[in-house]
């Protein structure tokens, strides 16, 4: 018994004028014999079935055709134009379920079908994928190598959730500043102001208190800043690091960005790694920058962006301040 090889090259829908369910599907296949020689200029018998739900699911439509291969071993048919055995192609609700196409072939042109292959139809919504040019060898599906090497193979369900969303990269000008850290594939991250908010600013408002601003991590500076302001308040009237950041505003393209905060120690350390990308640092004396992460009632963490060193500093020291915000 001869074995044939079907290589599906195109599966497309033709739509009716009202763009409803498709009436016809164009279908092409290349037929080779067991010696891998093309079956050329010969009639072949075909039975095509549409199955619902799975490769062994409910039969929704069946038709037969007797096309002839051309000089390249190619057959081209329109599913829906053959001799209907059962069902109606236009009555299939393509949005209701997944569907599979089953092809049975008799290379002698009759109805003694000696090879059967079944593959899922994929549509977006009706332009069907060509089953990645699957090859049916003795009824066994073999993936076409070009698809396995393509970018599409690596697309995952989680990737599709990002479609239509704005992706950001380190160094982007965005949200009133410069992006210096990203996560969630660029959907979220941290933005630094383009200049220092002060070059000689104390941490406290004149009174040593424990404000419980102990958080340290990405986004922690925002909650720390709120705690510091709630604890220090107006103080002695002179401003301080958290308040300077909290009151900072920047307008870009008519949009006012006003949700800035004093970075946590971790956020300052991340800023150090991108200090050249962000720029605008006026620290000619290599003084450290204030973080919002408190150490105790008299000390707070500080970090030197010029030398990547830090430690605990008295809250009355006059240090540099750079505001950040998150997105």
* Mean of pLDDT: 82
Give the beta-strand count. 21
What Rg do the Cα atoms give? Answer: 34 Å
How much strand content do the residues show?
35-45%
User: Which structural class best describes the helix and strand composition?
Assistant: mainly beta
Question: Roughly what percent helix?
Answer: 10-25%
**Shape field:** rod-shaped
Question: What does it look like?
Answer:
- With 327 residues, the chain is mainly beta.
- The protein folds into 2 domains: 5-147, Immunoglobulin-like (Sandwich), CATH 2.60.40; 173-326.
- Helix content is 12%, strand content 35%.
- The protein is built from 6 helices and 21 strands.
- Strands 5-2-1-9-10 form a 5-stranded antiparallel beta sheet, with no helix packed on it. A 5-stranded antiparallel beta sheet has the order 6-4-3-7-8, with no helix packed on it.
- The protein is rod-shaped and about 100 Å long.
- The two termini are 66 Å apart.
Summarize the structure.
This protein has helices at 145-148, 157-160, 220-232, 241-246, 265-273, 275-278, and strands spanning 5-14, 24-32, 45-52, 58-65, 74-79, 83-87, 99-106, 115-121, 135-137, 140-142, 173-174, 177-183, 188-192, 198-201, 250-252, 255-257, 289-294, 299-304, 309-314, 319-321, 324-326. It has 327 residues and is mainly β. The strands form 6 sheets. A 5-stranded antiparallel sheet has the order 5-2-1-9-10, with no helix packed on it. It has a 5-stranded antiparallel sheet with strand order 6-4-3-7-8, with no helix packed on it.
